[in-house]
Amino acid sequence: MTGGTQQKPALLIVEDDPGLLSQLRWCFEDFEVLTAKDREEAIAQLRRGEPQVVTLDLGLPPDPGGASEGLAALEEMLALAPETKVIVVTGNNDRDNAVQAVALGAYDFYQKPVDADLLNLIVQRAHRLFELEAENRRLARRDTPEPLPGLVAGSPEMLKVCRTVEKVAPTNATTLLLGDSGTGKEVIARALHGLSPRAKGPFVAINCAAIPENLLESELFGYEKGAFTGANRQTKGKIEYADGGTLFLDEVGDLPQALQAKLLRFLQERVIERLGGREGIPVDVRVVCATHQDLSALIADGRFREDLFYRISEITIHIPPLKERSGDAHLLARALLQRYARDQGRSVRGFSQDAIQAIERHDWPGNVRELENRVKRAVIMADASQVTAEDLELSPDADQPLMLNLRRVRDEAEGRAVRHALQMVDGNISRAAELLGVSRPTLYDLMKKHDLDRSRGASSA
Ligand SMILES: Nc1ncnc2c1ncn2[C@@H]1O[C@H](COP(=O)(O)OP(=O)(O)OP(=O)(O)O)[C@@H](O)[C@H]1O
Fold first, then answer.
1. Which of 14, 327, 374, 398 could form a disulfide bond with 42, CB atoms 3.0-4.6 angstroms apart?
2. What residues does CATH 3.40.50.300 cover in the chain?
């Protein structure tokens, strides 16, 4: 916005008749009018001015008597800017082309001769619809912020993780993801891959804890024909499959000792040997490892090699448990509810108040995976349009931990309410104070007491 002046919305008029064009130019006072007399100019204006609404004469040169050029212009415009509202203007008695244009995605049609008032009305209505749709898109984005592809998060704790991922992704650094089970380590690993120059290459994941020790080596490194009984053809391992892309080693803390040595050698030399093979095969992979285990404790116990630990942790990213992400449980629950309701064709719309409270209170030992499972089940079980705490199999009271005293209970509830209010209004102090029914100075005092800053109720510590 420049200097606080309200910018007028842009309207593009595409018309090859110069007389009609100059007449129309003055009919739309509420709009910044752009004009074009053929398809090429229209596309250039669309790119430059991003008009919300377009009136498009279907009879454009080189086919002024027909509609082929106009329809082609329509298709090109909608491919470039699908949200644009295009009103096609046709000759008298040209219903067929008008109908075809609407089928192609035009917002409406209008038949010549032009009545400026009527056309103005249609343009205004199209503009209102554009605004509404834009607002909906904005709200939908705000409702489920996805700071990384496939990752829903709004909490400062997770946004910090996402910023690290964005910085680390373009590098080749071997990255270690530490976080409890179900916190989204694989989601982050995929984001590291997706945002890297290797994105077009393969992403190969292997869970070191899920594969029996005697099979894991051949899974990772592959084998030659005859390497062992039953090896009746040459088989590539996961590392080789990941060539040119990213290898994700989940639960790397469970890697048996012998394989730790072999993995270390691979990370140093970037060459593998298949089981029973003699030749070294160079492989170009970026390695991302993850574990929920405490690797330092494993090292102290002699169960994990320290030299391997240093190799795999060129960069370490700590993923916080769900209960430590302010407001994310609720955000994720809403996003997941929308997704599952759509997938299952159920008209469940939201959560009841007791469900929201239960979600905020629960400790989420199983993290996002637990939340996913509970919401998925609740969408199926819900009798009404709202999911209740019971549908989530969460009891609003049962999860309440034992409290030290009443003052502590009040304090905690107060802190939660202030954080929640700030998040609901994006840190707007006046509105948060209004929501809480307190004055602004009181709210400032409360924020200080609970160590919160205005950026969405983040803890300022
Ligand atoms: N922030 C998030 N937004 C949306 N979905 C998420 C998010 N975090 C995790 N998920 C989903 O939760 C489930 C568990 O995530 P994921 O498998 O990445 O966790 P993990 O930490 O690798 O778990 P484990 O240690 O058990 O392998 C997946 O279905 C994933 O899509």
1. 14
2. 156-320
What is the CATH T-level fold of the domain 325-387, as seen in this structure?
Helicase, Ruva Protein; domain 3 (1.10.8)
Q: Which residue intervals of the chain bear CATH 1.10.10?
A: 406-449
Q: Whose CA is nearest to atom 2 of ligand 1?
A: 151
Spatial separation of the C-alpha atoms in residues 185 and 148, rounded to whole Å: 13
**Is the pTM value of this prediction over 0.90?**
no
Quick check: CB of 288 below 6 Å from ligand 1? no
406-449 fold = Arc Repressor Mutant, subunit A (1.10.10)
Confidence of residue 128 (pLDDT cuts 50, 70, 90): very high
pLDDT at 396: 66
Mutate to test the pocket of ligand 1, among 148, 180, 187 (most ligand atoms within 8 A of CB): 187
Q: Label residue 397 by pLDDT band (50, 70, 90).
A: low
In the predicted structure, residue 461 carries a pLDDT above the cut 50: no
Distance CA 450, CA 448 (A): 5
DSSP letter for each residue of 142-165: HHS--SBTTB---SHHHHHHHHHH
Nearest alpha carbon, ligand 1 atom 5? 151
Rounded to two decimals, the ipTM of the complex is 0.98
- Quick check: CB of 185 below 6 Å from ligand 1? yes
Distance 305 CA to ligand 1 centre (A): 27
- Return the pLDDT at 297: 93
184 CB within 6 A, ligand 1: yes
> What tokens were used for 60?
């454009």
CATH placement of domain 10-143: 3.40.50.2300
Shortest-distance atom of ligand 1 to CA 328? 1
pLDDT one-digit tens code per residue, 193-231: 999 999 999 999 999 999 988 899 999 999 999 888 888
Q: What is the pLDDT of residue 458?
A: 55
Q: Which residues contact residue 288 at a Cβ distance below 8 angstroms, ignoring those fewer than 6 apart?
A: 174, 175, 176, 177, 189, 192, 193, 246, 247, 248, 249
Question: What's the CA-to-centroid distance between 153 and ligand 1, angstroms?
Answer: 12
User: Using a 6 Å cutoff on CB, does residue 368 contact ligand 1?
Assistant: yes
Residue nearest to atom 29 of ligand 1 (CA): 369
